[in-house]
Input
Amino acid sequence: MRPAARHLWLGLATAPVVSFFALPFLYLIAVSFKTKDDVLNGRFWPTMPTLANWPAAFDAANILGFILNSVIVSLVSGLVTIALALPSAYAVLRLKIGGKWLSDVTLSSYMAPPIVALIPLFFLLKTTGLLDTRAGLILIYGFANVPVAFWLLMPFLRRMPIEIEQAAAMDGAGPFRTLLQIVVPIIAPGIVATFIIVTVLSYNEFLFASAFTFSDATRTLPVGISLFQGDRLVNFGQMAAASLAGIAPVYLVALFMQRYLVSGLAHGGVK
Amino acid sequence: MTTFAVEVLEPAGAAGVAGRGHAFWARLARLAWIAPVLVALIVTTLYPTVFLLALAFSKSTLGKPFRGFVGIKHFATALQDPIFLAAIGRSVAYALATSLVQLALGFLIALLFTSLLKAGRFLMSLVLLPLMTPPVMVGIAWKLIFAPAGGLLNGTLITYGFISEPISFLGHPTLAWLAIGAADLWQWTPFIVILCFAALSTVPDSVHEAALMDGANGWQRFWHIKLPLVAAPLSSIYLLKLILSFKLFDLIYILTFGGPGFATTSAGFAIYRRAIEQFDVGRAAAETMIYALVIGLVTLPVVRLHQHFERREL
Output
């Protein structure tokens, strides 16, 4: 095929793909600037744009509080997950502890849908007094994301040249020191990618959060937004504004960290 | 467990002079490395399984669990409940179908992005955004699109004269599933694109060039060279999406709440309502066990297929 024709075909194929993925997001933006009457006409862009929905959404629900809860819970649980998964992944791969058995069990534990753990974890949190607390949610997410982190970290550890670690061992460094001072700096991009991914998973999680939190002091953003849409007074403009406010932190992270993310996902996903 | 113990004891045995106490501490130190993951697995997998099993055989509510043994009553009730069985059927059909559609579409988009070279890599970071969007917000965005009054889709269809009256997409059994599928496709196809893109980039250029020299045309190169080379990763991507699809919950909660009627009630959603709204935790536990068993049975052939492709590669 001639280059010009080829470009035309590629362009024709790309345009619908890009518009499809951009559409819901652009529509959310458009609706957030629509007045109540404007919403009903079913057009894409607002005919008389208004800013009123944004402050109204923040007044109608404790959006900032929800975002704060989400950010705290997801960041701390992300740290917990990495702290739990990294030494174990290293031990399985390099120190031959646990072996194939442990990695198989870890991966297969990810197969069960979260609904399986919902009721048992509810009772666990109830008995330990952690129901409706941020600490409870942090622990649950921190533990639940371990298989994902384990899986994402493994390829980065595997590609780490073993000679460097052997040299460190010759110099008398114990395995834990080797991990912290030699391995961690080298695979830092992989750790960052894994941290972002598990943090976003916690930030986005809904099922556990909806069952384990029931006061404004602990509710995370997805739960807060889901209540918002259940309200008697369904205002599309405010709903769109509130949703966008909640999406913004994740999109900022995605834009600044896209390089890490794509490589982290791509390496972890395919063997 | 036995192989694990042998491995652990080996270095202590090699040390020779080390006493029994030393071996014990060495073993403990090695165990400490994997203790965090073991604790996580116990809390999130082992304990829930044992707890659910106990619940499933007992008379239990959310407020007061374990009030007497009831045998297999909950399992019998669940297996005779047409609403629950239909929900399981819907979950399985949905997972198999959406995963297949998204794998095909994601693979095509990945091929397109590979041909676009630099621009493709830029688009890749763009399609990352749907993947990162909280599913609740994905649900809300698509709910606005499908809304009967003022929704984008109805508005567009009316403006261009395809329909005269707005359609209640989320109020129609089949259309509601298609709407959930569309939102799911929007969110998860990017993930498949990224994984397929990575799989395609592992195909060495030399293979492609050799085929070109042999006079293979574009279609032949794709069908006989590229596709077999990425068959193993594709099957693992399908497996991964299948597992993710069985977790479907948020989109149903936001878009349809299982309705109209029970038309879009998935197994997970049915169990959630049984436990959280009706507090019948015993029966919900039995239903969960049945659902987990079904997931195992459905994914097993895909696991086998993946193993088949992996063996062929060696």
User: Anything to note?
Assistant: Residues 1-50 of chain A form one domain.
